[in-house]
Design brief:
single chain; four-stranded antiparallel sheet; 16 strands; Isoleucyl-tRNA Synthetase, Domain 1; alpha/beta; Rossmann fold; six-stranded parallel sheet
Length: 484
């Protein structure tokens, strides 16, 4: 594998509510990739952040009688806490209220305007505050936005600036014809179908009088940027564009390999509007965008009204950071929708971690501690190619399956060869078996690093010190199970 500069970014969620499990999935997927690439020797820049403008944020602050900046500061801090809570390795946390980001958004606007792709006109249409976008007839289901069926679309009539998205149908189709530009393939087909239909120019501003919270439009203080035009710019402003004082934009965006991670409902923004904006401004397009599915609970989409929302903070409090990462990466499908409940997570945690990896580690290291005079010298390496293949295919669950299959094989070896009996009859022969078992356990710990970094470190340390560690995964108490 050639060493290269690799850039990876998640979307940046709105700061109108506490982070949910769906975004936790996204940042953990991106983090696993970033960690894996670093292990492979690549130079990686990993970005995440907070989207702090838009109508629904401003309305939420007004409803609570709170200063808007204070409101976004509070929720942005919650998002930033995910770095510690989920043990993320991101290099930057970009905020769209950052002055440098605002300058970058205005510079991108100017470049699109210089190309002749921004114009002003009066417009009347239905607006979904939840999505922060105008709805076309083909967007509607029973007269409402399908993603926010409980909210009535708002009819707006304003004079706004528009971006000539319709101009870039040919260029977008050429972009979408590149190899692996969208993963998985069926999301690529969605993007192509949308572009092949009649592309409409996109509204990219709002009247400041009606929405005072946003980035000012260059040269027109009566308008603020549409939240998506502003927010999408974060993918390059985080690298220091346009000044690029540290050279990160050139290194990672222009000369490196770029990957965006997003939910399946983001295709129109990430793979169409954003790519057209980049083309208009004369900038390089994103090399690849990976779209994950949604997480449902009990067969229904998560919502506060149904009481089935799962918080990543609550997951970590109950199971721990690495167990939370494990469940999101192995038991949530990488690209399709998955169903997650507290009952299912209790089962996964107990069966695979407490009774599986945890017991295996304790079993091997207790035998080694009691019977080996010193730690092993030459740990083995197995499964690297299989894990690498799955990671490059975004098969996070497949990669972890490889590692846990090695654990199952090691468990079977101990059961079959019975080193705990052999050491009593032939100490040297028993020690050779235990050294091989310790080597296999070390290899399992090494391969777990991108997915469960703390567990990986504990296993490697135990093998290097030839000492049984504390329980990796404590059993769930009856109280914690009842709470779920």
């Amino acid at each position: 594998m050639d060493k290269k500069a690799r850039y990876i970014t998640t979307t940046i969620p709105y700061v109108n509510a506490s982070p949910h499990i769906g975004f936790a999935l996204e940042v953990v997927q991106a983090d696993a990739l970033a960690r894996f690439w670093r292990l492979m020797g690549h130079d990686v820049f990993f970005n995440t952040g907070a989207d702090e403008h838009g109508q629904k944020i401003w309305e939420k602050a007004q409803e609570g009688g709170e200063d808007t900046q204070a409101y976004v500061d509070r929720y942005a801090e919650e998002l930033a806490q995910l770095k510690e809570t989920l043990n993320l390795s991101n290099d930057n946390f970009i905020r769209t209220t950052n002055p440098e980001h605002k300058k970058a958004a205005q510079e991108l606007w100017k470049r699109c305007e210089e190309t002749g792709d921004i114009y002003k006109k009066k417009y009347k249409g239905l607006y979904c505050v939840g999505c922060e976008k105008f709805l076309t007839e083909r967007d509607l289901e029973n007269g409402k936005c399908p993603l926010h069926p409980s909210k009535e679309p708002v009819e707006l009539e304003e004079e706004n600036y528009f971006f000539r998205l319709s101009k870039y149908q040919k260029e977008l189709l050429e972009y979408l014809s590149r190899k692996d530009v969208i993963i998985p393939p069926h999301r690529l087909q969605e993007a192509k179908l949308f572009v092949e239909a009649d592309l409409e120019d996109a509204s990219i501003s709002r009247e400041r009088e009606k929405l005072p919270w946003g980035v000012p439009v260059p040269g027109d203080e009566s308008q603020v940027m549409y939240v998506w035009f502003d927010a999408l710019t974060n993918y390059i402003s985080t690298l220091g564009w346009p000044n690029d004082a540290d050279g990160n934009y050139k290194k990672f965006w222009e000369d490196g390999e770029t990957l965006q991670v997003a939910g399946k409902d983001m295709i129109r923004f990430q793979s169409i509007l954003w790519q057209a904006m980049l083309i208009s401004a004369g900038l390089a397009n994103t090399d690849k965008i990976f779209y994950h599915g949604f997480i449902n609970s009990g067969g229904q989409r998560m919502s506060k009204s149904l009481g089935n929302v799962i918080s990543p903070f609550e997951m970590v409090e109950k199971y721990g950071t690495d167990a939370t990462r494990y469940m999101l990466l192995r038991h949530v499908h990488p690209v399709d929708d998955s169903d997650v409940t507290w009952e299912k997570m209790d089962e996964w945690y107990t069966a695979h971690l407490v009774n599986g990896l945890g017991n295996l580690t304790a079993r091997v290291m207790k035998l080694c501690e009691d019977n080996l005079e010193e730690p092993i010298n030459e740990p083995g390496k197995l499964g690297d190619e299989d894990v690498a293949r799955d990671m490059e295919d975004f098969s996070f669950n497949g990669a972890i399956d490889v590692v846990f299959a090695l654990g199952s094989a090691l468990d079977e070896r101990i059961t079959k060869e019975e080193p705990y009996k052999i050491v009593k009859e032939d100490l040297e022969q028993g020690r050779e078996i235990l050294k091989a078992c310790a080597s296999e356990l070390w290899n399992i710990g090494r391969l777990l690093e991108p997915f469960m970094p703390e567990t990986s470190e504990k296993i490697l340390r135990a093998v290097k010190e030839n000492k049984k560690p504390e329980n990796l995964f404590p059993r769930l108490t009856e109280t914690s199970q009842d709470e779920s």
